[in-house]
Amino acid sequence: MRILIVGLGVVGGSYAMALKEAGYEDVYGLDTDLDTLKKAENLRIIKKGYIDGTDIVEKCDLIILSIYPRLVKKFIQDNKNRFKKGTVITDATGIKEMFINDILEILPSNVDFIFGHPMAGREKKGIDYASSKVFKGANYLITTIDSNKEENIKLIEKLAYNIGFKKVRRITPKYHDEMISFTSQLPHAIAVALINSDEEGRDTGSFIGDSYRDLTRIANINEELWSELFLGNKSNLIKVIDEFEVELKKIKIALENNNNKCLKELFVKSTKRREKL
Amino acid sequence: MRILIVGLGVVGGSYAMALKEAGYEDVYGLDTDLDTLKKAENLRIIKKGYIDGTDIVEKCDLIILSIYPRLVKKFIQDNKNRFKKGTVITDATGIKEMFINDILEILPSNVDFIFGHPMAGREKKGIDYASSKVFKGANYLITTIDSNKEENIKLIEKLAYNIGFKKVRRITPKYHDEMISFTSQLPHAIAVALINSDEEGRDTGSFIGDSYRDLTRIANINEELWSELFLGNKSNLIKVIDEFEVELKKIKIALENNNNKCLKELFVKSTKRREKL
Which of 1.10.3660.10, 1.10.600.10, 3.90.1640.30, 3.40.50.2000 would CATH assign to domain B176-276? Predict the structure, then answer.
């Protein structure tokens, strides 16, 4: 099976490394950045790098897209006459419902797009931060659509396990976006709001412990990617922000009322839930 | 210098371990739990454990209190006639202003209480989770009061550096509580609200990545301790919750207005601030 990774950033680079470790040999890379392709070639995590799809897309059986959501559509459009019949395409996009509908408008009928979401990433950009380790033990979500062939879904599932993911689940795009708004986008919104609510110019660094460090790690955020993810899942995200605000207000009201009992109940609930995770 | 650690829980136990590693030999423990004392003796991190202060308090030069805030006052009261003249007392309490005023009402004049806050801890309780590692590279805050002797403040500073803290700062109790409401209590409130806002009974664990894990780690929270800390610093905490809510609302409004530009600006700001940390 010949594999093409499109976009050798932090996620695509990690794919290339993990595929190599898992014994996949016939792996190629496509990226607009020559330096990145050179690095990937020098690391021997791809056989050869390409700056556009002209010579390589038609030769590949599996294409892994790890590029910004809006570039996925562009890639499909630019290469629609190049795909080999039966090519399997998969992606790493963090939102699904609106995104999939958008892609399906232009997807050629001779390819099978298995939409996937590896729940692993890093706050940094670029191949220099790539590492196969990020996939180890992580969750992988597949959002199937009616036209997907079972054998192709199985191929992606197997590949996910082979490169280190621990749990692979099939779900609907709608459910994916509901869950992800809560488990991924809401935490990012919170981290951004937390650090942005600091007063300008204070020496906050002298007053922090692990809790502040942990809660703001993802406030270091790729603004191009995450603005797309947020807006592409906005109704779900607004809903979970609202629900979060309700819970935060409970704490505030307990404080205002000196309600020690209520505070403790909220803490006991959160502790139980965290221990269950 | 003979040292007594009062409360051999996760913080006190970590103190005992770190003191031993730093070469302090004459260290004793006081705890209401016999098992804990036995464990500490077996680990040889204390010379001997005591279940009450009768025989040991009067013999010590430095007393480190790592017990719940409300128990600090009780300890002082119970032992006020036992302290040796010139004994230095320090603590590990996460709030200071109201707490210090409370203690000063009953503090005997023959001891010097250097109020301290080691910014290190763990979400778990008890000596089994103690580790000297938590102090390594961490921040230590000393909130001085007028009656403190310079030589005693220096003693605590030196001890903090000796057991692994990287940065020791002297600040006022008022400023301490302002900063800590933001860097410590607000993150805990957020983590609790985040996990409590999850819908009951979902298999959330299959949909999480590192971001949700990081942001909810401290939702596993000691409800006795943290309800005291929250209520003991309530006006500061309510203020920073309000400020956080304003920032979160900016994100929500940008989403509602499909304002990609505004979202990106918020992300660029948070990224810059995080990189500066």
Answer: 1.10.3660.10
Interface contact flag, B187 A268, Cβ < 8 Å: no
How does pLDDT run across B24-53, given as a tens digit for each residue?
A: 999 999 999 999 999 999 999 999 999 998
Position A206 scores a pLDDT of 86
Residue in B closest to A261 by C-alpha: B227
- Residue ranges of domains in chain A: 3-171, 176-276
CATH code of A3-171, in short, is 3.40.50.720
Closest chain A residue to B218 measured between Cα atoms? A211
DSSP one-letter code for A61: S
Q: Between chains, do A238 and B252 touch, taking CB under 8 Å as contact? A: yes
Residue B260 tokens, joined: 């990609």
Confidence tier at B201 by pLDDT (50, 70, 90): confident
Kindly state the DSSP code that residue B129 receives in the 8-state scheme: G
Over residues B152-187, the pLDDT tens digits come to 999 999 999 999 999 999 999 999 999 999 999 999
Tell me B183's DSSP state: I
Contact A187 B194 (CB under 8 A): yes
Identify all chain A residues contacting B222, using CB atoms and an 8 Å cutoff: 267
Residues whose CB is less than 8 angstroms from the CB of residue B169 and which lie 6 or more positions away in sequence, other chains included = A206, B139, B140, B141, B142
| B152's tokens | 């005693």
Residue of A194, A245, A270 lying closest to B187 (CB–CB): A194
ipTM for the assembly: 0.86
